[in-house]
Design a protein that fits this description.
By secondary structure, this protein is of the alpha/beta class. The protein is 37% helix and 19% strand. The chain has a single domain (5-286), classed as Aldolase class I (TIM Barrel, Alpha-Beta Barrel), CATH 3.20.20. Helix 1 packs parallel to helix 5. The longest helix has 18 residues, at 251-268.
Amino acid sequence: MPASVDIGGRRVGAGAPCFVIAEIGINHNGDVELAKRLVDVAVSAGCDAVKFQKRTPELCVPPEQRDLQRETPWGRMTYLAYRERIEFGEAEYRELDDHCRARGIPWFASCWDEPSIEFVEQFDPPCYKMASASITDIPLVSATAATGRPTILSTGMSSMEEIRAGAALVPPAQLLLAHSTSAYPCEPDELNLRMIATLGEEFDCPIGYSGHEVGLQTTVAAAVLGAAFVERHVTLDRAMWGSDQAASIEPGGLVRLVRDIRVIETAMGDGVKRVYDSEIPVRDRLRRPPAE
C-alpha cells in the first residue's frame, strides 16, 4: 500500500479521503480581489487546499520571448511586461495568506524558479507542487525537496524514465506523484487514467491526478481509481481571458465535483459482505421461508 504524507494536518494517501486541490494558478489575472473570490469559491465547494503559481518573470521568460508583443486586456505589451503584470508580489501574497487563514483553507504554490521557493517559504506552506514542465529541472526539484516539505511532482509530458529521475530527487517521506496530461484542454482519449494504478505499482507514495479536461466525470473516475488527491483549475468564468481558463471548472462545477467525490467515497465501502438493517424488512417480505 502506498505510503501517506501529511499536508497541512491532513493525511493524504491510501485509505484517507481524497484531498481536493483547487488550482487558482494565474486565473486571477493579477487581480488580488479576484484571487480572493476564487479562494472563497474553493472554500464553499469544500476543497481541501488552494494552489497558486509563483514565478520570477525575468528568470522564467526566455530572452527570445521577452520582447514579443502580446495583446492583453490591459493593451498591447511585451510578453515580459505581461508576465510581470499578472505576477503577485509580497503585498498581494500577504493579503492572500491572511484571507486563506481567515477562511480556514491552506494554500501552496508551484514555484518555477529558485528565488520563488525562497519567496514562498516565508509563508510556511504545507507543501509544494512541481509543474510538469519542471520535473526535469534538477536544480529546481532539488531546491524544492531541500525545504523538507511534501513535494508533489506532476508527470505530464514526461516519460517513465523522467518520472523516475525526478522522483529520485525527493526523499520518499516527502514524495507525491500526480498523473497528468499536459494539454489544455485535454481530450478524454489522452487522459490515460489507468496510469494512476501504473504509478502506484512502482512508487511507494501517494498517487494523485491533475486534470486539464473539460467536464467533471473523468476527474471523479480518477478518484474511483484510487487517486489520493485530485487537482483542477478553477475560474469564475471559462470565457475569461487567460491561457488556463478554458480547461478550468466554474464554481457550480467545483461544488458538484467535490460532492460527487465524497458520495462515491462513502459508497465504495470496505468490501466486506454484510446484510444491512435496511435490507431485513425487504428480505422478510420477499423471501420464502427456508424449507424444513
